[in-house]
Design brief:
Radius of gyration: 19 Å
Largest sheet: 7 strands, antiparallel
Order of helices and strands: HHEEEEEEHEEEEHE
CATH architecture: 3-Layer(aba) Sandwich
CATH class: Alpha Beta
Structural class: alpha+beta
Oligomer: single chain
Strand content: 35-45%
CATH superfamily: Mog1/PsbP, alpha/beta/alpha sandwich
Number of strands: 11
Helix content: 25-40%
Strand order of the largest sheet: 4-5-6-10-9-8-7
CATH topology: Protein Transport Mog1p, Chain A
Number of domains: 1
Shape: globular
């Protein structure tokens, strides 16, 4: 019996070590990506402000676009994504060439962001149940036009690849808006900056 208990304990320790190594790998993958220069950040900001930004050698138009019956509007890269789904409360835009996905979801309800800690916990639990290896990078809270907003950045890992997941949660009067931008980890620093600039253009009820 003692031998069995020790074997189980050893297996659990090995499992924890493997998980820790995987976490360190994903975190290192993020940290190893070169930070954008201040000049590049300014170029992205200026491009979105002026509604034209060169991405991957192509000029991309960032024009104001409304979503979910004008609940919100923001500058959006119109000629970069192809819409693959548009159902009630659910929009998916994809760029298959550069493997970048933009997902928007609106769920009716109020007060959800007051429990963002619970929401984050539930997200982690759901990802764990689905056996999706996740490494949390950062999260935070802020306000947009007096509306509560939360964001989080984490990575998910397949057998061969690591993907970034940048999520934004905006509390509206009648529900919660979720934005999810995801893609290959090598592009995370670029899209992290683009998303931040896009979020700054959000207008509630625009």
């Amino acid at each position: 019996m003692a031998y069995i208990d020790e074997t189980i304990a050893r297996m659990e320790r090995e499992k924890q070590k493997a998980s820790q190594k995987a976490n360190e790998f994903a975190k290192n993958e993020y940290d190893d990506i070169e930070d954008l220069s201040e000049q590049e950040k300014e170029r992205i900001q200026k491009g979105i402000d002026e509604e034209i930004l060169n991405l991957y050698g192509t000029d991309v138009a960032f024009t104001k676009r409304s979503f979910f019956d004008n609940r919100i509007s923001m500058k959006f890269p119109e000629n970069f994504f192809q819409q693959v789904a548009n159902d009630k409360g659910y929009i998916i835009e994809c760029n298959m060439k550069y493997i970048i996905n933009f997902i928007l979801n609106f769920a009716e309800g109020t007060g959800i962001l007051f429990q963002f800690g619970n929401l984050k916990k539930e997200m982690k639990e759901n990802l764990s149940k689905r056996k999706i290896h996740t490494t949390w990078i950062e999260d935070g809270l802020k306000r947009i036009q007096q509306q509560k907003m939360a964001y989080c950045l984490f990575t998910t890992k397949s057998q061969k690849d690591v993907f970034f997941q940048y999520m934004v949660f905006i509390e509206l009067k009648d529900g919660l808006l979720t934005l999810n931008i995801n893609g290959d980890i090598k592009q995370v620093k670029l899209w992290e900056q683009i998303i931040k600039c896009m979020v700054e253009t959000i207008e509630i009820g625009g």
